[in-house]
Write a structure and sequence with these properties.
Layout (H helix, E strand, L loop, with lengths): L2 H32 L5 H9 L9 H27 L4 H30 L3 H21 L7 H19 L3
């Protein structure tokens, strides 16, 4: 083996080690960040499902979680639209209330949270995440204990509390 071949091999090995260290560092940030949330395992699951989390800072992790809230709220709205036409008048009233709540999340809270985080104003981003959790709770309560949306509302609340906890780290 020539000296130039050994040198190329050595440089390649160093590059591989640096990349491995970077991946481990990114995984450690996700783990460290999620350990400071109410549901670390769910947090890790949400963040690792987004490939961009692998080289994200804390702000980017918060933005990923806000997008998780958006996806969960969108799923809730889609469910509402599927159910509202085939529901009793009492359920229609509750579904309509939920539609209003989730439209406020999707058209107000989420865009505000994204803008705030993007502009370096995490306090307002946290308010958007907390509002989403509150709207999900209000939706659940509108059914007076017989909610067909419990799973969906819980998903929004869980993702919102995780997002809020991550954003808290930026304050």
């Amino acid at each position: 083996m020539t000296k130039s071949s050994i040198f190329v091999l050595f440089v390649t090995l160093i590059v591989i080690l640096i990349q491995c260290n970077s991946v481990l560092s990114d995984a450690n940030l996700i783990s460290k960040t999620c350990s400071q949330t109410p549901n670390p395992s769910l947090c890790i699951s949400f963040l690792k499902s987004d490939p961009s989390s692998l080289n994200a800072d804390t702000t980017k992790l918060a933005l990923i979680m806000v997008n998780v809230i958006k996806a969960k709220a969108t799923a809730s709205v889609n469910f509402i639209h599927q159910q509202i036409g085939k529901s009793s008048p009492e359920l229609k009233k509750s579904f309509s209330s939920c539609a209003g709540a989730y439209n406020a999340v999707l058209n107000g809270g989420i865009p505000s949270a994204i803008e705030a985080l993007t502009k370096g104003q995490p306090k307002f981003g946290q308010a958007g995440a907390n509002d989403a959790a509150n709207e999900a709770t209000d939706c659940e309560n509108s059914f007076h204990g017989k909610s067909p949306m419990t799973q969906l509302n819980n998903a929004v609340k869980q993702s919102s509390t995780i997002a809020s906890a991550i954003i808290q780290l930026l304050l």
